[in-house]
Amino acid sequence: MFKKVNNIFLVYYGSFNAKSGSNVHILELLRNLKKYTDIVLFAPGQKSVNRSLAGAKYVPVIDNKYLVQPSYELMLSFYLLYSCIKNRPDVLYLRQNSFPFFPIMLCKILKIPSIVEVNGLVLDELKVNPNSQSFAYRVFSYLALCSEKFNYKHCDRIVSVTDKLKDELVRLYSVPESKIHIINNGANTDVFKPMDSRQTRKKLQLDESKKYVCFVGHLAAWQGVEFLIQASPLILEKCPDARFLIIGDGVMKDKLIEITSELGVSDKFTFTGRVPYEQVPFYINAADVCVAPFIKERNSRIGLSALKTYEYLACGKPIVASSIPGVHDLIESSGGGISVTPEDPEELANAVVRLLSDEKARAEMGKKGRKYVVKNHSWDGVAGKILEICEDIV
Length: 394
Prior knowledge:
The chain is an alpha/beta fold. The chain folds into two domains: 7-186 and 378-393, Glycogen Phosphorylase B (Rossmann fold, 3-Layer(aba) Sandwich), CATH 3.40.50; 197-376, Rossmann fold. It has helices spanning 21-33, 68-86, 102-110, 122-128, 135-154, 163-173, 197-203, 225-238, 253-262, 280-286, 299-302, 307-314, 327-334, 345-356, 359-376, 379-393, and strands at 7-11, 38-45, 56-60, 91-95, 114-118, 157-160, 180-182, 211-216, 242-247, 269-273, 289-292, 319-322, 337-340. The strands form two sheets. It has a seven-stranded parallel β-sheet with strand order 3-2-1-4-5-6-7, sandwiched between helices. Strands 10-9-8-11-12-13 form a six-stranded parallel β-sheet, sandwiched between helices. Helix 3 links the parallel strand 4 and strand 5. Helix 8 crosses helix 14 (345-356) and helix 12 crosses helix 15. The protein is globular and about 65 Å long. Residues 20-190 form the Glycosyltransferase subfamily 4-like N-terminal domain. Its EC number is 2.4.1.-. This is Glycosyltransferase.
């Protein structure tokens, strides 16, 4: 099917020690690209990383939060150079995070076609990161900004996950539009699929008589979970049997728990902490409504292609999500949910109440959402689009 592409190097700078959307993304790409071509994944090899993943080369690093990325960049240069000499790839595919320089530099020297995948911008991350004023963070951010400029200029193609992000790459870095391809994120539609809610609630030891509102994701400031918590008293006023499942971990967790206590709703919320990837579909399927209350800062300018929204829909669940570019488009195209004004607890509450009160609407939206994601946003489809770009530059 993709005869010109026989070997791809997939280079990743994220840590597999923590559950994150970027880890899910890269592992799904690896799994699905393998169906069509040989692929090798390069990733940081902290001591605690599970090394059972086939097709991965774990590069030794200094296991310290300040030294992991610099040591990875240094050691990766040797690993990549040796691997390129021994088994030259047809294409090198780099996910832009941290501050990679060497992979694209090596591609320029050895004339290996390269693709850089972009999911966000350093300047936007700085605005919402609570550590953004620390000296170490500012140094790393400066390096990351320099890396963005270098890689976007010298790679052969860029994969952007949203239209808005593409526009920002053109505006900020003067990248030619023709160089950028838009490929949204996807869902594993074999893992994230509709299940019997009674069985999943029983499995998770949840009260089957309640109605559940579910959020899944990294508990970072830009996710806007605090607005769901602020909306909860309004939801409980009209739906007293509502309960809230917060699936995930992150820097905001303690603060969010504190807010539930201040509002007197802590007994209505369950914070599960980190949950294994394969268990997440059970929580989604146990819910009646799923939410993605993203804030405006960081999200509105570049848009979002959030994994959680595709996974909610793949499970056949209606979603209530902030009207952010990318997310709003997904809801409109799929018919799988309701868009609300970001950072508006009252509007968020009204939308959740509307769905909790209308089982028929929930079922109809869920069916439409599942059908749309299976057709348009499976990871197999994402892999196919990437391979088409690879074929074009080989």
